[in-house]
HAD family hydrolase (Clostridium yunnanense), 208 residues
Amino acid sequence: MYSTVIFDIDGTILDTEFAVLSSLQKLVYEETDKKLSFEDLLFSFGITGEAALSQLGIKDPKEGCNKWNEYLKDYFHHIKVFDDMEETLAKLHEMNISIGIVTSKTKLEYEADFMPFGLSNFFDIVVCADDTEKHKPDPDPILKFIELSGSDASKTLYIGDTIYDFRCAQDSHIDFALASWGCKSKDGINATYILKNPKDLLEIVNAV
């Protein structure tokens, strides 16, 4: 049985695709005069904002992130919690499963983008981009979580939607469950479990 379940945020707990990519499109066009499609920008999910902007040729990724976060506010009303996610989190909590977050968001982004949805109280520990020098797909964020929580890696499961999440879990030597409701490409992802719905987690936690 798993005693700890760790979640990614974007594409896993929250459906942020339209808001994140629309605001990123706006920033890239403003900074580089390039009109990029959502498909061109999907790689940005799962890595830090600064890493994504560096790959897009933004000259000052840090300042670019500040602008991106401002533009995101215009699309915030499009963000929603995935169906059945809140109910699943509540049930895991009732089952005394320790649940936490490992995200590529900074603490400020976590506070601005995630906390308004009222789910923060479910999570015992949150590891943000500020908490480690290296970020997903490097294992450091999950290893930091395990260090802070004292979790048993053999009884820990990470839920995410990207190849970066999978590699982070794999190199941390913990099991990985793919959130198929937010996943855009399964290429290279050899997940321990493929979840069709958040509620699938309840069966896995009970069965293992």
User: Anything to note?
Assistant: The first strand starts at residue 4 and ends at 7. DSSP finds nine helices and eight strands in the chain. The chain has two domains: 4-15+80-207, 17-78.
